[in-house]
Here is the input.
Amino acid sequence: MSKIKLKELSHLSETLLIPLTARGNETLHSSPVIKDEKSLEILSQIDPENINADGGNISTHGILARTIIIDQELNKLLLQNPESTVINLGAGLDTRLNRLDNGLLTWYDLDLKEVIELRSLFFAPDNRIHSIPKSVLDFSWIEEIVNRENVIIIAEGLLMYFSEDDVKIILQELSRHFPKSHMFFDVVGKYFVGKGIHDSFLWGIDRAKDIENFSPPIQLIQSWSTGNLLKERQSLVIRLLNIFPATKNRSQILHIEL
Here is the structure.
């Protein structure tokens, strides 16, 4: 069977494949910190077509760290409320549902039309699992969320590609429509704004607490600096550089309540 080509997705194909490849390669590691067989399955069906899917050691470390933290924290919330509604913004080729599905939750994957069409090749439809082919800034997608109690929102590897003004608008809209919901996302430090692997980052913050200024109802519940995570996978140079806040906080994972 011929493999699926991604050239129609332009530069998006690279940003989709980097986290997928990181999780797949980690699954094959001799001592994996995560096991993601679904990522391996998808990778086996894709023709990379000379696409660079290796984000480098620092990017891979950040991807693994945020995957572990968000998986763990979502699992805790799902144990408290098994019938929660999870909204996965900028889903890409995320495979988290395959690791966390408890058979009771409702899950929404949101992404651009061409990405949702790609996802449909790898994920079977289900009456609890829904796909929404829209931009996160097209807030008509909110009308498709039926249950707005016990909502958990994920925006993994997404918000840094929006301007600060757009991030504020997104958080304000989420706060207005999903009050008391939990949200998990990662941010880069301000030093990295204007930089990036393939696309430049447009927004970042240095202090996790500053996120509370973006929308009045927001409360920071917890934050994690990737420099403090998976230290056994960091090079000696990176571990030494982590004594500096700018390096330690190059990427942070935030848990907020809207």
